[in-house]
Amino acid sequence: MRKLLKSSVCALALFVVGPTLTIADETCNSPYTSALIKGQEDFLHVWTLGEVGVGDESDKLVTIDVQPNSPTFGKVVNSLSVGGRGEAHHTGFTDDRRFLWAGRLDDNKIFIFDLIDPSKPKIVKTITDFAEKTGFVGPHTFYATAGRMMIQALSNPNSHDGQTGIAVYNNAGELISTHKMPLENGGDGYGYDIGINPAQNVMLTSSFTGWTNYMMDMGQLIKDPEAMKRFGTSMIMWDYKSMKPIKTMNVPGAPLEIRWSLKPEDNWAITATALTSKLWVVKKDDKGEWQAKDVGNIGDPSKVPLPVDISITADGKGLWVNTFLDGTTRFFDLTNLDAPKEVYSKKMGSQVNMVSQSFDGKRVYFTTSLLANWDKKGADNEQWLKAYDWNGKELVEKFSVDFHAEKLGRAHHMKFSAKPTKAAALGE
Amino acid sequence: MLLSNRPRAQRSRCAQDGYGILLLLAVIFAMATNQQTIAGPVYPEVGTYKLQRIQPAPSGWVLENSPWLPRRLSSYTKGKITLFTFFYSTCRDPDGCPKAWEAFQKVHASVQANEKFHSKVRLVFLSLDPKVDTPEMMSMFQTSMSTPEAPWSFLTTWSESFLAPILNDLYVPAAREFDDAGKRTDVINHLIKVFLIDKEGWVREIYTTRFLDSDVIISDIGTLLLEEE
Predict the structure, then answer these.
(1) Is A1 contained in some domain?
(2) pLDDT digit string (tens) for A333-391?
(3) Domain that holds residue A335
(4) Contact at 8 Å (CB) between A259 and A272?
């Protein structure tokens, strides 16, 4: 398999790599991700859950043309089914932005797609022994570091609760090391997202819930008080170099996505808590110690809007926050980081989960699916991708793709890609 | 030659600009030091952390000094701790090869100055442009930069077809740009990655342009040396 990955690097001649590494493009990528899209993205790849009664019912990587000058703008140009339904969830680029790793939370399969021709991704490797090799299940976050892919898992194969860890693979898809989430010094063992701040040599992790909960029907889950206790309440700051926890911070209510400010002089991160509907900021205090601070509500927490994905602007001054249950996106002004202010909101539909913006913040994309068993039922189970322009005051819809009408499934995680420009790989 | 000229030019400019600049630099240094204390990165002590085995260093054939004597790349990646990267002599991107040069120079100076590193650490540059960077050209760099205490090899290959498998093994994308007429230019876009390789030939750390800190590299070399002991 290692040979297969390598040979695909050799075989495809035309690609471009950026000679410089400055900052990632769409703002949620790892700082180690290179090959920037400096202008308009050409394609959007949507990691899509297969759905019973919808098309081939298989999980798939759906590619949509998002280049406004293209005759197929706003259309699905490729759909690559991977076989079966295993709770497709998140994806992440390798550091060279050549390969896209995509995971499934239930059967733990990890698919590595080659995007040398981004209009037609190809599977070059499938990792099928993640649980066996790592002792974890639910490969969630795929976070590139130099020559490696860090994978935050959600659970374990024994108790299926939230005790889990991080697995590190090399770019060939071979396991390098595993690191358990701490249970000491206030750690609860849960995992969810990873955010590295290389300038500070720190890695921040958040905490969600285990397999038993995330695979349970949401209606059943919220009626089970014992199950509702089994969510993460911590964020861990790690020494990235040594992969050792240095501080556990109490952040109740399942802190999810982590976004470090991309502004070079900033050294703070922000997250949203799903169950308590709050924004938390993590930064150093005057004594140089990392602290997590509750900086405000998202919507009305008493109505449990269920904050899910967030997307930070490149200047660190704005944040999109989706709330799943009311199907609303909200834009927060982060100018006063101690008291972010919601300055815009829009009802997107019956449900909304993921949000991704271009690096200039002018284009914002939304999808619907959270987890197969947590998505709404019946007519409220809308499944779409919607693309908007953001002019600083309002979202203006450019196009939408109905994932049910197109017989695709449940639309989840999004990543951008760009057409290769003219260059020849050395040796070709 | 490129590198041997640069320090002289820098010294010359400093001398012309006089003490005002030196004073300013001293102030900036003091501020930077102060900032580091309050908000800068905190790296673990040498030897208190483990560098994982990421992947084996690649195999292949390279040239040093002579076009007639091919050598195994492994003879430059085993037996000593090796800091390895790709470069090409006509690289003009300030965020590309020059940054690697700068980091390697600093590491080289540290190795040179620290007796415990002598005979245990080597530096290796491998050219991305074998047509221009001939063995003769590389030997000039080597003569200028390498010392017995801190050997610095400047390697090249017979052709890109010998180079490509090494690049692929290390997942370093590199491509030659075309001009508007569709003709190949002398610009090679590549991702700067610097590889720290242990004496068994395992890549133990990878540094990219944004995170190319010579102090961290020296610390990692020290950690590998302690591991050997």
Answers:
(1) no
(2) 999 999 999 999 999 999 999 999 999 999 999 999 999 999 999 999 999 999 999 99
(3) 43-424
(4) no
B183 to chain A, any CB pair closer than 8 A? The answer is no
Q: For residue A96, is it within any domain?
A: yes
Residue in this structure with the two tokens 């394609």, named with its chain if needed: A43
Full-model pTM = 0.90
> Does residue A243 sit at the B interface (CB-CB below 8 Å)?
yes
- Strand order of the β-sheet with B55-56 is B55-56, B202-208, B193-197, B81-87, B121-127, B152-155
The reply to whether B176 touches chain A by the CB within 8 Å rule is: yes
Chain B contact probe: residue of A150, A290, A426 with most B CBs at under 10 A: A426
CB contact under 8 A, A198 and B192: no
What is the count of structural domains for chain A? 1
- Identify residue A211 by its one-letter amino acid code: W
What CATH number corresponds to the domain at position A243?
2.130.10.10
Q: What are A16-74's pLDDT values in tens digits?
A: 333 333 333 468 889 998 877 768 999 999 999 999 999 999 999 999 999 999 999 99
- Which residues, other chains included, contact B33 with Cβ-Cβ below 8 Å and sequence gap of 6+? none
> Model ipTM?
0.91
Residue A36 lies in a domain: no
For testing the chain A interface, which of B171, B184, B219 should be mutated: the one with the most A CBs within 10 Å?
A: B171
- Are the beta carbons of B49 and A242 separated by less than 8 Å? yes
